[in-house]
Design a protein that fits this description.
This protein is of the alpha/beta class. The chain has 8 helices and 12 strands. The strands form 3 sheets. Strands 5-4-3-6-7-9-8-10 form an 8-stranded mixed β-sheet. A two-stranded antiparallel ribbon has the order 1-2. A hairpin with a 2-residue loop joins strand 11 and strand 12. Helix 1 runs parallel beside helix 2 and helix 4 packs parallel to helix 6. The longest helix has 13 residues. It is globular, with a radius of gyration of 17 Å. The two termini are 18 Å apart.
């Protein structure tokens, strides 16, 4: 299990364990629009939905998870938290969910989507499914967000930096525009590894910045500490 300051994540049955990407997205996603409703697409352990519950007063926080074991684990993690009455997980694929819920609107939609596009197999089918874009292509994700996002909503993702340009181009086709971009590096010397992207329906000037996680092993930068200190026990 993984212990955070205000909640615990059990993850023994999840292919995708708690990782930096999920924590970054949960801590970084703008909540400046005072959301009433939030949707987490591809919940995994339920980490991001729980972080959004901690950071916002949203009364409705829904999550979708297609994998049986991950779904059951997310539900357990929701029920064990102090925000259980605000959190709900649907056991469904995204297409099925959109078909069923197309009249719903969410003020924030978050997703840490699967993204290894290379022809690679780890030998663990469950893990590969959680990691590969084949199980959730960017186009499907963006189209679903465009259908379900409220008028002043924010759609927020974390993806590999090398996919940033492509992802933004697809989003633009669905009239979703980048309001904020943060590019993430492991250390000052390493290449940019991830892009945090927040989209809105309104075209505004994009705020772009960079976040470095560590100066050296386990020496976290002030910026990373500031971003995650409400969650990590040791920060």
């Amino acid at each position: 299990m993984f212990q955070f300051k205000q909640f615990t994540i059990q993850q023994d049955r999840c292919a995708m364990k708690v990782g930096t990407d999920g924590v970054l997205l949960g801590a970084w996603t703008p909540v400046s629009n005072n959301p009433f409703s939030i949707l987490d697409i591809g919940a995994g352990t339920g980490l991001i939905a729980l972080m959004m519950a901690q950071r916002s007063t949203a009364e409705q926080i829904d999550a979708i998870e297609i994998d049986d074991d991950a779904y059951e684990q997310a539900v357990e993690n929701f029920e064990e938290s102090k925000w259980g009455d605000r959190l709900f997980c649907y056991h469904a694929g995204l297409d099925e969910f959109v078909e069923e819920m197309h009249d719903e609107e969410y003020d924030i939609i978050v997703s840490n989507p699967p993204f290894y596009t290379e022809n690679y197999s780890s030998g663990n089918e469950q893990r590969d499914k959680a990691r590969f874009t084949e199980s959730l292509p960017f186009e499907h994700l963006i189209e679903a967000a465009a259908i379900l996002l409220s008028e002043n909503g924010i759609f927020s993702v974390i993806i590999p930096f090398k996919e940033e340009e492509k992802f933004i181009a697809i989003a633009t086709e669905f009239n979703l525009y980048p309001a904020k971009i943060t590019r993430v590096k492991g250390t000052p010397e390493t290449e940019i590894k991830r892009s945090l992207l927040a989209f809105t329906r309104e075209q505004t000037e994009t705020t772009i910045d960079e976040l470095v996680i560590e100066t050296s092993r386990h020496q976290y930068t002030p910026e990373y500490t500031e971003l995650t200190k409400d969650f990590y026990l040791k920060l």
